[in-house]
Each structure stands twice: as C-alpha cells, then as structure tokens.
Amino acid sequence: MALTGLESIESLSDLTALCFGLGADSIGTITQSERSLSRTQASSGLIEQARQAIVGGQDFLGDTYCALKSVEARRPEGQTYTPASIVQTMLAWAGDQTTPARIVDPGVGSGRYALAAAQKFPEAHVVAADTDPLALLMTRATAAVLGVGERLDLVLGDYRSLTLPQIGGPTLFIGNPPYVRHHQIDHGWKRWFLDKARTKGLGASALAGLHVHFFLATALHARAGDYGAFITSSEWLDVNYGKLMRELLVSDFGADSIHVLDPESAPFADAQVTGTITCFKVGEQPESVKMRQVSSIAELGTLAEGREVSRARLSESTRWSVFTRVSPTLPEGYIELGELARVHRGAVTGANKVWVRRDGETSLPASVLFPSVTKARELFTAGDRLRVKDGLRVVIDLPQDLDAFADDERHEIERFLSEAKKAHVDEGYIASSRKSWYSVGLRAPAPILATYMARRPPAFVRNDVAARHINIAHGLYPREDMSEELLDNLARYLRGSVRTSQGRTYAGGLTKFEPREMERLPVPAPETLFEIGAL
C-alpha cells in the first residue's frame, strides 16, 4: 500500500511512540537510551496502518524517519538509506555463495539489510549495530511485525568496537557503512584506525572516511570462510586514502567483484554519490576480480557479471575506476595488454637541465650515466627499433649510498651535488620527496618503449640498446619471460593496431594514453601472437 498517514507523525517523538506501539519493546533488551526517546502514545489506527505497510514490504518507519529528518541533519551521522532493490540484489549474491550461520550489519539504520537478511536466511543469527538509539528502536519494531526478532541481537554502539565471538559456520557481513568525512571523525577513532591498520601491515591515512574505517573493522572481525557485500561511495577506488581498502581487497580480504553504479542511476534518493558494491570472500585470493560499471540499478543482476581483472594488475594500480569502464568486447584469442605486460611511465627527474646531459658533457663516473630516451621524437624517429645510443642524452642517476665510490669519483659527485644545491634542486617538490634527493630512480630498461601523448597513435619501439626512459615515455615490462620473437611480434602488432580513438583526446587533438589505459589495449594472446605477428 502507498505510504500515507504522515500527517499523523509530526515529530521523531511520534515516530518513537509508533515503534513502541508496534512492539519494539518485545524484541531483545531495550536500552535506556531507546526508552527515553518518547512519552507519547500512537493511535491504534496509525499502528495498524504501519503494520500493514510493513507486512506489504515497505520500510514504513525508515521512510517516515527520512521524511521527518532532513538530509542535512542526517549527513553528519552518515545516514543514507539503501533502496530495497539494491538490498535484495546484494542478498541474492550472498545466497548464491553459501548459507551463513550469522549475519552482521555494521550500521543497521531502520533494519533494511538486517531484517531482509533474517527473512532470507531463517536459520541465521543476526547481529546489528548502530550509534543511534532510534535506529535500533525502528529495527526492533519492524522485526516484531515480521516475526524475526528472536534471532536478532541489536547493539547500541560503534561497529568498530563490536565484539563478535567465534562461531561454527560462516558470517555474512552486509550493509551500507555510513559515509562520514574524515573531519567529522573523532581524533581518538583516527588513532584507532592508524594503529589497527599498522597491526595488519597496512598503510593508512587520517583522511579516510568512516566507510574505510568500517572496512578495516570488518577485516579485524572476520575469519577465513566469512564473506560479505557492502555498498559505499566509489571514492576509495582512486583516492590516496582508499589505498588501505585496495590493499585489503587484493590480500586476505578476497575481493570477488566490484560493481560501480553510474552517477546517472542515482542509487540514493538523498545523496549525489556514485555507489559501489563490493563483494568479498575472506581468506580467498582469486587470480582475478570481476569489475564493471552499470548505468542503472536494473543492470546489476546477480552481481555475477564483470570483466576479469587480474589481482596482479590491481595490486600494481593506484586507480581502480579505469578497470570498471566499458571496453569493446575482446575478440576470441585476444586479451588485454596488461595481462602480458606492466606499463610504467618513466621516472620524473624534477629538473631535467640538471639531471639530463649530453654524452660527454659531464665528468661524473660512467657508472651513474645512463643513456636514456628523454624526448618523444627520439622514439618517433627510431622506427621499429632503437638500434643505436648515438644521439641519446644521459640521465644522471646516483645511488642512495655514495660510500662505494673511489675518492676521485666521490669528489666529482660532491662537486656536482654542490652545484645542484646552489640551484636549489634539492628543495624542489620531486627531489625533496625522494628518500635521497639526488637519486632519480630510473627504471630498468624496458624491452618495448612507447610514446603516450601526441596527435598520432603511440610509437611502440623495440629497445635493442637497453636505453632507460624518463616520464616522456612508457615502458612495457613483460609479466613473464617472453622470447625476442614474441616481443617483436607484440610491438609490431601494437604499431599496426592502436588508434588515437583508444586514448583520451584533449582540446586541440592531443591524445594521451595513461599507463592503465594502455594496459587495456586488446592484443593477441601469446599462443596466437606468433601467427598474427607474422602476417
């Protein structure tokens, strides 16, 4: 039935009275904080109306709460309610995995996840936490109407401090962790977050939002064999503070699939965010993770779809949203370049006029001078292969430990460093952020070098002279040993197949291929690369 009767509920006190009228105090042990919320009494007509709506599948109490309390008032508590269709989709995925012995909802709200899960899994014990006593009261009331209260354990408190005893059988963690920005998180909890992350060997940022805290808390609560699905904002896919979540998901937290809802789908009626559903299986480390972006809630299906992205690629990437973007269907016998090779941009010197010199222009030891590709045109003019070092500049790349040099070499190095300091190179952003400001950190020679920004397709050049490269080029590094013939064929195929339309085009026609975007280029699988390369 349609939601009506809101004119009879004018305040949160009235809503509380309705909760008691529906039997909230018959479910578990009511806390004093819940009991003190109301002294009014709901009419029998309103109680019956609410009961019928709940039996009919509506979240009457949660919808009423959202109507009474503005988005602005709910935002500091991270109270964003999930549509029932998304709740059911996530539960359907959970049901396809195994049957849980216990269900844990980290932020119960009005009970949308906890109670739907209790109905789907009639043998499971349900644990749900929330810091808002009215949230618990609404959940108790709806549970009383649905008849699932005997298996419900509601905790008034913070999920991060929840104690979960070990049980026989798997635990399903499911819900919508509250989205609260870092500046609204108490300093003590930020300290908790940093300390707990350290115990798991993870780097953490105090800028992380509350949903990231809840992911970490879940990793601490969970045991191998547990599983779960959370919906959050999608920020963590790319931002620095999301590194902890990304590291968790490719380690023992066991990401199974990640589904990004296009912003146009508006998954939350009262929040303009891009929703991301993350499904995980604790203790598993699959070879790949299913990832996709959908344009509507209806496209979510059973959360079983998505392009397979290798865990190795995810481990190396600082931005995961690129893996969710739609890409052309790969022809039979083809894979993405990233499955064969890592793509790395060259090192940033921070001051090319200091670190990049013409050959013979410096008296520094030869062991710190590395012939390198320092201009894109050097690759464009090389053709298929970079065959000679003549004409290449050298990059000065000093090791962090300078004590190994002989006295005369050390003297030249110290003179060079003194001149660099006079030019304030050591104070530059790049140099000052290095472990040793004077060590550029060139990557090893890549067997294939590629340009990545031009008004033409990238050049893919075989690096016969083992030249290094700086940040004007990408290096392609095979994940496993590849024969020279296979490398030749791969470079030949890329030269003949890659189009500017596959990159990111800017005003003026300049096309750019970021490393992760280049890794998504389709290439023949190794078993067919020989044949195609010979055509």
Intertermini distance: 67 Å
Main pleated sheet: 9 strands, mixed
Specify the structural class: alpha/beta
Provide the spatial order of strands within the biggest beta sheet: 3-2-1-4-5-7-6-8-9
Total DSSP helices: 20
Strands, total number:
23
User: Per DSSP, what share of the residues sits in E-state strands of 2 or more residues?
Assistant: 15-25%
Radius of gyration based on Cα positions? 29 Å
Based on CA inertia axes, which overall geometry fits? elongated
Q: What's the mean pLDDT score?
A: 91
Helix content: 25-40%
Low-confidence stretches: 1-6
Quick synopsis:
It contains 20 helices and 23 strands. The protein has 535 residues and is α/β, with parallel strands linked by helices. The longest helix is centred in the C-terminal third of the chain and has 16 residues.
Write up what this structure looks like.
- It is a single chain.
- By secondary structure, this protein is an alpha/beta fold.
- Helix content is 33%, strand content 18%.
- It has a nine-stranded mixed sheet.
- Helix 1 (12-21) runs parallel beside helix 8, helix 6 (84-97) crosses helix 7 and helix 18 (484-497) packs across helix 20.
Jot down its keywords:
elongated, 535 residues, disordered N terminus, 5-stranded mixed beta sheet, alpha/beta, 20 helices, 9-stranded mixed beta sheet
Spell out the blueprint of helices and strands:
Layout: H1 12-21, H2 32-35, H3 44-55, H4 60-68, H5 71-74, H6 84-97, E1 102-105, H7 112-120, E2 125-130, H8 133-146, E3 152-156, E4 171-175, H9 187-199, H10 210-221, E5 227-233, H11 243-249, E6 255-261, E7 275-281, E8 288-294, E9 307-310, H12 311-316, E10 334-336, H13 337-340, E11 341-345, H14 352-355, E12 356-357, E13 369-373, H15 376-380, E14 385-386, E15 393-396, H16 407-422, H17 429-433, E16 448-451, E17 453-454, E18 460-463, E19 468-469, E20 473-478, H18 484-497, E21 504-505, E22 511-512, H19 515-519, E23 522-524, H20 526-533
Parallel strand pairs: 1-2, 1-4, 2-3, 4-5, 6-8, 13-19, 14-18
Antiparallel strand pairs: 5-7, 6-7, 8-9, 10-23, 11-20, 12-15, 13-15, 16-18, 16-20, 17-22, 21-22
Helix pairs in contact: 1-8, 6-7, 18-20
